[in-house]
Design a protein that fits this description.
Radius of gyration of chain A: 40 Å
Number of domains of chain A: 3
Number of strands of chain B: 6
Oligomer: heterodimer
Radius of gyration of chain B: 11 Å
CATH class of chain B: Mainly Beta
CATH topology of chain B: Immunoglobulin-like
Helix content of chain A: 25-40%
Number of strands of chain A: 19
Shape of chain A: elongated
Number of helices of chain B: 1
Number of helices of chain A: 7
Order of helices and strands of chain B: HEEEEEE
Largest sheet of chain B: 6 strands, antiparallel
Helix content of chain B: under 10%
Distance between the termini of chain B: 23 Å
Number of domains of chain B: 1
Shape of chain B: globular
């Protein structure tokens, strides 16, 4: 029963006697009212059978006047509205299923071992689980306790819990104004993406840069145009070209062998790419050099150069 | 049961002259809106006032509401 019902009876007889009789049998009575030799009492529906039995045993005339407040009996409701109960239960089940976390994704780690953070998160939750706001705050606090983390933000995206982390600056990253280092290109290529966290970017997307070229200078310009030393820090991606040369001495047989080796080399290059790298395409040139055949294969790859 | 009730059989609490609680009662002796008589061990309590009514009663406790003007205990 969800809501308690109250039942009002009109009982004929001496008021004091009726009240004492019911009170003696531990029936709670609310506001008995006396009208025309009848006592109107309100009792809880739980006491209904008990009250009627007492009154019958003591030969008291009674009449049920009113039932206050509709009680909801889950069993009765379930039998009566089986279909709708099923619909509600399945809707709730689908809702909780869709809100259940099954994946945990850690974002923003560079130096700290990802498994350490995973363990910290999994110490609070064991997917699949319904994650509440409180639980997310708990996860954030637990991850914050790991050394080297300065900020944590956990949020739910679909069925994935994304834990965004900002690591503390390492000693190298901390600004040494005496020895400022600029960010330089590690490889030759064409810039495709620039993200600068600190310093002044000296290149733009589409620029061709050579290996060792300065990309981010360790200063920023203030309103007066003065250079203020700062830490040069950023992420620059570029399209680079990797070259592989295959040489064949026999002109007649090279074609078949080259095709085989070309496929094999392409497979190796694709497999060797890291998560951040992207394979764009390939092209090749064939030329005669001193009676032998030199085949140059060029692979276009987008990779991080700084 | 607290110490007072154990020692003196019943306990009366009056709240602002508008609500009265009797613990350890033995039933009502008379009941109307101007006077309510309550039996207790070793005597009778008579309440007079206006618009008196029993707000709640069970085996041990009785709550009376209304404007209480006097309270008398007789043996």
């Amino acid at each position: 029963m969800i809501f308690r019902e109250k039942i009002e009876y009109a009982i004929t007889g001496n008021v004091e006697y009726i009240i004492n009789l019911l009170a003696k049998h531990n029936v709670a009575i609310n506001r008995p009212i006396v009208k025309n030799d009848r006592c109107f009492v309100k009792i809880s529906s739980n006491d209904r059978e008990k009250v009627e039995k007492i009154l019958k045993n003591y030969g008291k005339k009674f009449e049920l006047i009113k039932v206050y407040g509709k009680g909801i009996n889950i069993k009765k409701l379930a039998k009566k509205h089986l279909f709708w109960v099923g619909v509600i239960i399945s809707t709730l089940a689908i809702f909780f299923y869709s809100q259940t976390i099954i994946n945990v994704q850690i974002i923003g780690l560079k130096r700290i071992d990802e498994s350490t953070v995973y363990q910290a998160v999994l110490s609070e939750i064991k997917p699949p689980i319904y994650v509440t706001k409180n639980l997310m705050n708990k996860i954030e606090k637990t991850v914050m306790n790991i050394d080297g983390i300065s900020y944590v933000s956990a949020k739910k995206e679909g069925r994935t819990l994304k834990v965004n982390i900002v690591e503390e600056l390492s000693k190298i990253d901390k600004l040494d104004t005496q020895n400022l280092i600029s960010v330089k290109a590690s490889e030759e290529g064409m810039i495709t993406k620039i993200v600068v966290y600190g310093g002044t970017c000296l290149v733009k997307v589409g620029d061709k840069v050579s290996k060792g070229q300065e990309l981010i200078a360790p200063y920023h310009l203030n309103a007066d145009g003065d250079k203020k030393p700062t830490l040069a820090f950023g992420k620059i991606e570029a399209k680079i070209t990797k070259e592989i040369q295959l040489t064949y001495s026999n002109e007649r047989e090279y074609n078949e062998r080259f095709l085989q080796e070309y496929d094999e080399q392409t497979r190796l290059v694709k497999e060797g790419l890291s998560k951040d790298e992207k394979y764009l395409g390939t092209h090749f040139f064939v030329k005669n050099v001193d009676k032998s055949i030199v085949c140059s294969i060029y692979y276009d790859i987008i990779t991080r150069i700084a | 049961m607290n110490f007072i009730k154990e020692s003196f059989n019943y306990k009366i609490t009056i709240i602002g002259g508008k609500e009265l609680c009797i613990e350890g009662h033995k039933g009502l002796s008379h009941y109307n809106e101007n006077e309510i008589g309550v039996r207790v061990k070793g005597g009778n309590i008579t309440l007079t006032g206006d618009g008196l009514y029993v707000n709640e009663i069970n085996e041990d406790e009785l709550i009376i509401k209304g404007k209480v003007s006097s309270l008398g205990v007789s043996k």
